[in-house]
Amino acid sequence: MGFIVRAITLDLDDTLWPFAPIAERIERVLDAWMREHSPATAAMFPVPQMRALRERVWREHPHLAHDLSALRRLTLEIALRESGGDLSLLDAAYEAFYAERNRVEFYPDALDALERIARRVPVAAVTNGNADLAVIGIDHLFAAALHAHEHGAAKPDAGIFHAACERLGCPPGEVLHVGDHAEVDIVGAARAGLRACWINRVAAQWPPHEPAPDLHFDTLAGLADWIEAHAGL
């Protein structure tokens, strides 16, 4: 095997579930919510305009890049203010967004694979997103969860990987980070001294200028099989 895995850090979006369908539903749900509760906002910011506003807010507030919830709230606040809407609706609008954000559809193999992995080694979620494991109903499978907004910096910053290792009580060299994004997850984890496993569901090409990941599977089930085959080694 060549190395020992005592614990795993795990990305969430696009590793356990696809995020694109969630993003599409969020747009529809927020549009319907605004049409019901703040028609002037819905009229000024239909889906394309709300998307453009969100992208503008992202660009104009790079200091919040690690806090997607703050960026989303700011987007909603600006939309309400510029449309003459009632700012007291902000919390309820955000709650409508957040409920939809946590409606996930797992990849077919992912939940069973996660359960198999969690039976073998402790798992910590490490995410730049704002998914809530308890709301989704999988918090019992994780020994810890570290969000970029909590840490103050997002992957590929080495600090968030190191903080997760500390929570797991393992040195980085004995922790395997698992994720879908070549640069943010795999290269970032490797530079932080962790082992890295690329879950490449879309047959992407590995960046040719970067060292290859320690492990590479097209499903999380592939990693679960590997973990079970190497348990105790």
Features:
single chain; 6-stranded parallel sheet; Four Helix Bundle (Hemerythrin (Met), subunit A); 233 residues; Rossmann fold; alpha/beta; elongated
The coarse silhouette is: elongated
> What's the CATH H-level homologous superfamily of the largest domain?
HAD superfamily/HAD-like
CATH topology of the largest domain: Rossmann fold
CATH C-level name of the largest domain: Alpha Beta
How widely separated are the two ends?
8 Å
Mean pLDDT: 96
Low-confidence spans: none
In short:
This protein has helices spanning 20-37, 39-44, 47-60, 68-82, 90-101, 110-120, 133-136, 148-151, 158-168, 182-191, 220-230; strands at residues 7-10, 123-127, 144-147, 175-179, 195-199, 215-217. It is of the alpha/beta class and 233 residues long. The chain has two domains: 7-17 and 105-230, Rossmann fold; 20-101, Four Helix Bundle (Hemerythrin (Met), subunit A), CATH 1.20.120.1600.
